[in-house]
Amino acid sequence: MYHPPSPPPRRDHVVDYANSLPNECLALIFTFLTTTNDRNISSLVSRHWLQIEAQTRTHLSLNAKSDLHPFIPSIFTRFNSLTHLVLRNADSPSSINDDDMILITSMSPNLTRLKISECEQLTDSGMAAFTKNCKELKEFSCAYCRFSDLGMFELLDNCCKLEVLHVKRSFDKPGVGARRAKFRAGGAVNTLKVIKLTNVFNERLFTPLISCCKNLKSLKLIWCGGKMGRALEKIRDGNCLAEVYLDNVNVSDVGVSSLAKCRDLIELNIKSSRCTDVGLISVAENCRALKKLYIGHYLFRNEIGDEGLIALGKHCVNLEELVLIGVNATYVSLEVIAANCQNLVRLELCHIDTITDVELMCIVEKCVALKILRIEECGVSNNGIEALGLGCPNLVNLNVIKCRKVTREVGDLLREKRGSLVVKVDAYKTTVVNPITLELVSTRSRPSENSG
């Protein structure tokens, strides 16, 4: 007997197995969505997904214009599990104010990271109020804000778990009420581990703060004018500093020599023209755990030479990365560094006329562990670069930039000889005085004397 085929099931009878998943499983799946766009799209699938996505979102970035005010309750009621919040006012003359920040932080009690930028309506009294809601805050970043020292004092007082502080574009302006306030160390000075200051001119606040932080491990001063360089002179003995980054900071040998107190210093970056052999020798003799050193300036030559670099090679034998810019290095000091620093894996020599083929041959012969080599605007020629084909067995990346005696052909030769080596040669277009020597190629193509 003929049996007609069954009709297709009605759409209202189709089972949505995704909705049958337990909330915990669906929440775990959402953790694999790494982009904001993916999470936004997934929240449109159903009400159930909308709810779970909101409950599992921990990061949120908002345009902090004053127009945000009426939407704050609905936004932070939906996203009630936030730990990281970014409030950036980029294109509006009016930002959120103190009342808005108090409401936002009261609805986000689990915040561990807060970043605010160009929120010029925030005041010292607002900082005093909303930071009391940030008991779990570990990282605070502010840029182009107008609250003064008093507001920063409130942050340090109320956020006793603060570990990272990043301040950008802060001025100690005449007439500010905080100028009459004395520095007071809040509870955060016991927990701060990282201080990063960019375009900050307020040494009144930050110099004593740096000296008070006993557990500070990383200090970065970038384009900080005024007397911010003197903050180094206030560093105490027994500190925990492992990283110091100084970029265009008015720091002298006195400040650099103060880093000799940092026995645990691992990474030091000094982009300054005022440092001399005196400061470098003091650091080298006392900071023997140093592994990464970046010293020099692209625009200005300094007075660091062989004397300071020899001390570095003698005492900092654990050195792994060395970047020298505009220093007066020669074969005398490079030989000591190459012979003693057997763990050196990265070496950059930039804007140094005294680096010639003689110095490069020293590197070829003695830097066995070297993996990355960068040579920029030095006096080396094709002959010196070509010699790298016979030395530095672990070299994987070679970058030669604007060395007047080097042509692109030497890069092709090295690639042919060492196929695994990544070579980049950015040469001048002018005619090179020293032509490339093809002796290695001819030797390679010539049959050996012992061959049958």
From TrEMBL:
SUPFAM superfamilies: F-box domain (SSF81383), RNI-like (SSF52047). It comes from the Eukaryota. Residues 251-416 form the F-box/LRR-repeat protein 15-like leucin rich repeat domain. GO terms for cellular component: SCF ubiquitin ligase complex. This is VIER F-box protein 2. Signal peptide: none annotated. InterPro entries: COI1_F-box, F-box-like_dom_sf, FBXL15_LRR, Leu-rich_rpt, Leu-rich_rpt_Cys-con_subtyp, LRR_dom_sf. Residues 20-59 form the COI1 F-box domain. One of its GO terms (biological process) is SCF-dependent proteasomal ubiquitin-dependent protein catabolic process.
